[in-house]
Amino acid sequence: MAVPSPKSPEQSERSRKYDRQLRLWGDQGQQDLETAHVCLINATALGTEILKSLVLPGIGAFTIIDNEVITEEDVGSNFFVTADKIGEKRGSIASQLLCELNSDTRGHFIDECLLKLLDLNPGLFKTFTVVVTTSLHEKEIIDLSHKLWTYNIPLLVCQSYGFFGSMRLQLAEHTMIKTHPDNQNPDLRLDCPFQKLKAHFDTYNLEALDLTNHLHVPYLVILYKHLEKWRNDIGNVNALPETYKQKQVIRDNIKNSIRKHENGTLYHEENFEEAIRSVNFAYNRTSLSENIQLILKDEKLMNLTLNSQPFWIMVKALKDFVDNEGCGKLPVRGTLPDMTADTFKYISLQQLYHEQAAKDAEAVYNRVQQLLQHVNLPDDTITEQDIKIFCKHASELCVIRGTRIADEYERKGNADNEISQSLEDPDSLIEHYIILRGIERFYSEYYTYPGEIDEQVEPDIPKLKLCISNLLSEWGCMYSTKEDYIHEYCRYGKSELHSVSSFIGGCVSHEIIKIITRQYKPVNNSFVFNAINCSTESFTL
Amino acid sequence: MAATIAGVFKPEVQNLIINSKILLVGSGGIGCEVLKNLVMLGFCNIEVIDLDTIEVSNLNRQFLFNKESVGKPKSHVAKTSVLKFNPNVNITSHFGDITDNKYGVAFFNKFKLVINALDNKKARSHVNRMCLSCEIPLIESGTMGYQGQVEFILKGVSMCFECNARSEPKSYPMCTIRNTPREPIHCIIWAKYLFSQLFGNSDEDVSMEQKEEVEGGYEKLSARNWAIKNEYNPKKLFKKIFFDDIIYLLGMSHLYEGRIIKPVLLDESLLEQEYCEYNHVPDNKILTLEQSISMFSDSVTAIKEKLGESNAECLTWDKDDDNFMSFVVSCSNIRSAIFNIPFKSYFDIKSMAGNIIPAIATANAMVAGQIVIHALRILQKKYDRCQNVFLRSMPNHKGGLLVKDKDVLKPNPKCNVCISDGEILLVTDTHKFTIRQLEELVLKKKLNMVAPDVQIDDRVIISSDADDEVNMYDLTLLEAGLKDRSTFEVDDGLQSFIIKIKVHHQEKYEEEEPDFEIFNNMNEFNAANEINKYMELNENDDDCVIEEKTVDSSGSGVCVNNEDIKEAVMVSKKEVTEEISNEEGTEEISNKEGTEEISNEEGTEEISNKEGIEEISNKEGAKDITNGEGAEEILAIKRKAAEEIEDINDVKKSRVD
User: Fold this and answer.
1) CB distance B543–A211 less than 8 Å?
2) Interface mutation vs chain A, best among B64, B85, B360, B387, most A CBs within 10 Å
3) Is pLDDT above 80 for A308?
4) N or C: which end of chain A has fewer CB within 10 A?
5) B401 touches chain A (CB under 8 A)
6) CA–CA separation, A417 and A423 (whole Å)
7) Is the ipTM here above 0.90?
8) Average pLDDT in the B259-281 region?
């Protein structure tokens, strides 16, 4: 007999190389990474650290935009430039060395000034999945932010400055299906069992079961029976136990139905004990969460077109399902928690949920097909498999509409408010956001960073202070930053500390991976790191 | 280098960086990052040690290695790669085991600071003890998926690695594996044993001896020799392992007496089944029984070839070898079919068989960044600012990803390692437990010693010196003079670790009972006994009777074939644990944990009980099949439950090992 290897060699090599991360974000997530193209502006130490943690897990491609040459400072903090290359193009060398980390990733380099590129070839930016920047100046940030906002391409503006660092994430619109919520109630439908489920529950007559079968009834059945009994007792067929007292009544009822030994002591019926413990969460009313209601009402659903994202077409189909077949409810999720039961009883119950989930997903799929036809998109724009995943995670869908970074600079958004509120907490790291903004302002005015030239450290202190207090008064904040901090920042003179960049680089790549894979919710929307006392904080600016 | 950049570091800090010699233990995921960060900060005297060689699955994060370096020693390649970027630093690399006695006190004393970037508890404990005895500060670290932590350890100043109990790898009683598997993991472990029995160097037999016709009669052959004699014919092997061995088991009537678990013979038609294509099935999908059988024969054929090519007598099982994995996947699922246990996918079985912990570059980068920031503080002796730091997978309510303890945690006054030369309680059957078991299982495996010596009244019982001729190893504790209530002292000269052990004799009746148990004191022992009593009380509920039936096998991936059998009750671990922790015996323990948790920061306690349990039950897979009633089962569950409690506490503390 021939010995076919289980998989093709390349595929097997790939899954072996990426095995440890596939266990976190799955094949789909890996595929998303492998088709992503990340643009880095400025290959500083932080910039290369960010790319390093993206190249290793296998992003498809990156492009570095950088028109600087390598200096001694770069060599001191940036692992991906070397001393023998001082004076050469920073982006070029970094790109070469980063490519050595993973042969699956293609690296590109553009030796051009950002503002010029934005002016001459803005379309270039449409080709990127995500754009991440380090050490940008005010004007660059503002122009880039505007451009990427209109293209709906995620932008991360990052900094590593002495012992501090920050990241600001701009997402015009970001949709997610798998958000991996922390704790999610199971989708059991005890309050409104679908037809077959109800019929299945009705086949049970708990009192008539022999002891062995009684010990092996899944707790869902017990809960359902006791819900019916309780509804009967109080004379309301639609009621659900909501208060502690009501729940306690049911718990007592369940306890009383545990079989007894001849001597009157209770049998140890695990399934009944499970039922008692599950009273608290299992009787939830099946309904649409506020978040889902909002998504189903989104204006994006009004006029679907050829250009609509698949996500919105699926949401529209979902809405139509909820309004029709679903009778106001989401498709059945189709998964059951573990429970004490014999295999047969458990599996027959599980299959009912499976079948209903498949049926619901099919209904949604049919609606998707109609919608696709309607807007003249090919049938296979959205596959049946896509819909299955979409329906399974329907209750955790998430749409993020962020704020524009440029608004912070042009004072159009709500950032001022958040800043003054955060300032009320004396331990807040917002102060460092303010100082970092002050330093950007400083650069705009003097074309140098405070303390960058050794002899200038002392004279730069009052200048930086002035920049900061101007900013604060623009925002209408009554606050004066701590003198120590200003001295400290001036002392740094823009130097970048490798281990700080290593940490922030990890954080930023983390967020980029979340965005590319559309799994897990990203930080909303700013993040500051203080390495002096190892603390982090995020703000919504 | 960075250290020389004026402004960031004061001259005295610059000097510290230049003059401090650092030991980095481990050059894997975190190690690579730390080495890079140290060098970039200006450290120029670094020694790095690692006993591993590079594997393909390292390449998604261990950036100092590439495809060409697969198979080479990690420490050497890491050094070469870093020097390529920074030729001016002085790095010494060791390809070796840090617990080796050639890395003794004299070796450790060369360093100002030791950084652990390890992946196992034994080495972590060892370095912890070495650093305590040399009074060198140690930074301990770990990551798991999106999470991670950095801890600071210094004798007398902070908690040591062993101040709190850490979770132990699970172990399963051998007879569960051999005769009464209830969960997929039991079948997976069995399949790994089977691999070493057939192809490797086995110390545990799971397949029976086989009678074989020879000239002039029969001879009994070990399973391995039988397989060799039959040239690893997949069909014959399949019949022997999954039919003949099962028939043999069923023949031992006492095994399944009074039990709900019982193997059911597969349909004989499977012996002659057609080849059933399975290559198109993705890793994360479950194969059918028929497909598993084809996978089994393919993998046996491939492994046999490999054995032939390698010229080696033995193969060592490796999760990264596809054929070895296929063997374990197919064997464990076929066995699951026999014992009515749910099947698992290739992907999941790989996790379980290989104890795989997910690992990514980003978390390692963050933890390594933090390690070096800690290192700077430690060298400046700013110990009060070296709180333990935890990296969370999601921001907490305050938006923090990084959470730290409020203060540096003081050593646990009861710690046997860093504070007192404490006394622990060893509960075992002194009539059966041997000195060899004492050394291997208790002193080395459980207490993580590397060179223990035991002397009683000037008699050497256990010696770390190979030249000493000690012939006590086959004696039982009692025969060696270690009787009930006696106390003896163990001294590990390498680790400068001394501990007193008090013996408590407890007769062992059942094979499933553990060989020994360790408690910190009598109270803990008594508390554990309370749980026993509780479990025994519930045993009386046994009312189920097994009816004997032969059942046809069904071909589906999920085994629902013998629905008529009064069968296994599924108990989710969650339930068992919750149940036990409600009992008084453990309440005390869990309270204790509770207070600890509060003294940590909010962030760490965010990883709530519920989440922890959920995670564990998910990890373990959908269902545990257990009848929950037979006496032996109960013991097993109890043990399992106790392990679970530990696990949960561990998750609570959000420590990652």
Assistant:
1) yes
2) B360
3) yes
4) N
5) yes
6) 10
7) no
8) 83
Is the CB of residue A486 less than 8 Å from the CB of residue A445?
no
Six-digit token string for A12: 């097997």
Token pair for A405: 């970074």
Q: How far apart are CA A182 and CA A231, in angstroms?
A: 32
Phi, psi (deg, nearest 5) at residue B439:
-70, -50
Active site residue B175: yes
Which residues have C-beta within 8 Å of that of residue B455, sequence separation ≥ 6?
B461, B489
Q: Which two tokens stand for residue A309?
A: 């994202």
Helix axes A430-446, A457-475, angle to 10 degrees: 110
For an interface test with B, the pick among A346, A499, A520 (most B C-beta atoms closer than 10 Å) comes out as: A499
State the Cα–Cα distance between residues A355 and A369, nearest whole angstrom.
21
Contact (Cβ atoms closer than 8 angstroms) between residue B361 and residue A52: yes
Residues 6+ apart with CB under 8 A from B401: A507, A523, A527, A536, A538, B391, B392, B394, B395
Six-digit token pair at B110? 């060369």
The shortest CB-CB distance from B399 to any of A58, A338, A537 is to: A537
Burial class of residue A533 in the structure, from the number of CB atoms within 10 Å of its CB (0-12 exposed, 13-18 middle, 19+ buried): exposed
SS3 B331: helix
Collect all residues with Cβ–Cβ distance below 8 Å to B145 and sequence separation of at least 6.
A23, A24, B357, B358, B359, B360, B363, B393
CB-CB contact of A536 with A172 (8 Å) = no
Give the CA distances from residue A423 to residues A163, A433, A461, in Å, rounded to whole numbers and listed in that order.
20, 11, 22
Residue A500 has pLDDT above 50, yes or no: yes
A533 touching chain B per CB within 8 A = yes
For chain A, what's the residue count? 541
Determine which helix (DSSP H) or strand (DSSP E) holds B348, and give its type and residue range. Answer: helix B346-353
DSSP classification of residue B450:
S
d(C-alpha B557, C-alpha B567), whole Å: 18
How many CB atoms are located within 10 Å of the residue A527 CB? 28
- B599: amino acid identity, one letter: S
- Nearest CB among A53, A341, A495 relative to B8 is that of A495
**Catalytic residue chosen out of the listed positions B175, B187, B276, B559:** B175
- Which pair of structure tokens corresponds to residue B447? 């207490």
Residue B651 pLDDT exceeds 60: no
Judge whether B366 and A503 are in contact, CB under 8 Å: yes
* Distance separating alpha carbons of residues B54 and B57, to the nearest angstrom: 9
- Cα–Cα distance for residue pair A452/A495, rounded to 1 Å: 8
Pairing of strands B45-50, B138-144: unpaired
Helix (H) or strand (E) holding A41: strand A37-41
User: CB of B535 within 8 Å of any CB in chain A?
Assistant: no
How far is A84 from A80, CA to CA, in rounded Å? 12
Which is nearest to B179 in space by CA: B148, B208, B150?
A: B208
Mean pLDDT of all residues belonging to chain B: 76
Per the listing, tokens 């009554």 go with: A478
Backbone angles phi, psi at A392, to 5 degrees: -60, -35
Determine the distance in angstroms separating the CA of B471 from the nearest CA of chain A, rounded to an integer: 46
Is it the case that residue B308 has pLDDT exceeding 80? yes
Pick the closest to residue A156 from A175, A139, A131, A122 (CA basis). A131
| B608 Rama class: left (phi>0) / alpha (psi -120 to 50) / beta | beta
| A18 touching chain B per CB within 8 A | yes
Residue with more model confidence, B504 or B173: B504
Place of tokens 């789909």: A28
Model confidence pTM above 0.95: no
Nearest chain A Cα distance for residue B631, angstroms: 14
Q: CA-CA distance, A70 to A153, in Å (whole number)?
A: 29
Instruction: Report the residue from B56, B60, B370 with minimal CB separation from A13.
Output: B56
Q: Which residues of A touch B350 (CB under 8 A)?
A: 19
